[in-house]
Amino acid sequence: xxxxxxxxxxxxxxxxxxxxxxxxxxxxxxxxxxxxxxxxxxxxxxxxxxxxxxxxxxxxxxxxxxxxxxxxxxxxxxxxxxxxxxxxxxxxxxxxxxxxxxxxxxxxxxxxxxxxxxxxxxxxxxxxxxxxxxxxxxxxxxxxxxxxxxxxxxxxxxxxxxxxxxxxxxxxxxxxxxxxxxxxxxxxxxxxxxxxxxxxxxxxxxxxxxxxxxxxxxxxxxxxxxxxxxxxxxxxxxxxxxxxxxxxxxxxxxxxxxxxxxxxxxxxxxxxxxxxxxxxxxxxxxxxxxxxxxxxxxxxxxxxxxxxxxxxxxxxxxxxxxxxxxxxxxxxxxxxxxxxxxxxxxxxxxxxxxxxxxxxxxxxxxxxxxxxxxxxxxxxxxxxxxxxxxxxxxxxxxxxxxxxxxxxxxxxxxxxxxxx
Length: 420
Description:
- Helix content is 66%, strand content 0%.
- By secondary structure, it is mostly helical.
- The model is unreliable at 1-10, 40-49, 55-73, 223-259 and 414-420 (pLDDT under 50).
C-alpha cells in the first residue's frame, strides 16, 4: 500500500480514512473552521534550546533560556568590562581626571606667583572672560553645542591643556637652551610653544567634534558615517562621505538645510571655548607674576627710603593691557582655526578638502601663534605692526564667518516634524 504524499498512513486504516483524519470535513453550515496554528521548530539551530521548543514571537533569541546567544556572546570579555562603554562611568573618569589636573595646575601657578599673586591674577584674568564667552554663545545659536560639551572644553583648556603646556614647555625650553644656547629660547617661543599648546588644546576637539557631527546628521535624517573612511579608503573606490550620495531619493516635503555651516560653527565654538579656559589660566599666571614682581619692587623701594607711587605697578598694568584688553581673542582665534579645519574635514564632501582640512587648520593655528609670540620681541612698533596687519584681519575674517553662519541659520527653513 502506498503512502499518501506529505505523511505516513495510520496502520489499520484505509487510505480514505487517513485522508479524512488529516483533513476533517467541512461543517454543513457553510462555515469552515480555521486550522490550528502550526508550531515552528528551530530544529536545534539556535544554541541553548531543546530541539522541540517553539520559537516565541516578539522575543530576542538570546533571551529564551539557556546561555546568552548572538552578539553578546561574540563580544570579548574585556570589551564588556571596559569602563568607557558606560556613559556614567566615563563621565566620572573624565571629571576625576580634570579635577586632578586642576589641582596640579593650581599648585604649579601658586608656586610661581604666590598666594596673593594667584588671587590678584585670577581676578584680573576673569574680567575679559565674559565678553569672549558671550561672543561664542552668540555663535553657538547656530552650532547648538550642548552645554555639557562647552563645560568640558572650558575645563579642559583651563586645567588639562595648561598642565600639559606648562610641563612640556619647561622641558622643551630646557632642552633647546642646553643644545642651542640663547637661540634655543627663541626657538622654544616661536616653534615649540605653539606646537605644544595648540596640540594640547585641539585634542579636546578630537573627542567631541566627530560625535557631534554624527548627531547633527542623525537630527537631519541622514545616515551616520565614520570620518576615518575619508582618510583610508581604497584608491579605486568612492569614499564614504558624510553627505548622502546623489543617487539617493530626495524625501517628499520641504528639504532640510545642509549641515555644513552648523558643523563649521560647532568646530569654531568648541575651539574658542577651549582656548578661553586656556587663556584664563595663562593670564592668571602672567598677571600674578607681574603683580608679585611689582610688589617686591615696591617693598624694596620703601626699604630704601623712597616714597611709594602708582608707577610701582607699571608691570601689572602693562601686562593687563596687553593680554586682557588688546588680545583677549588671541587664543580663541588660534584654536578656532584648528576647530574650523577639523569641522571642514568632517563636513565637506570633496576628497582633498576632507584630507587637508584638519592638518591645514592646525598648521595655520600654530603659524599664527608663532607670529604672535615673535611679535613680542620686536618692540612696540613691531608689535603694533604685526597686530594691525595680521591679527586684526584674521579676527575680522572670523567675525565675518560668524555673521555668515548666523545668517544661514536665520534663512534655514523649518524642519518637518519640529526637529532641530
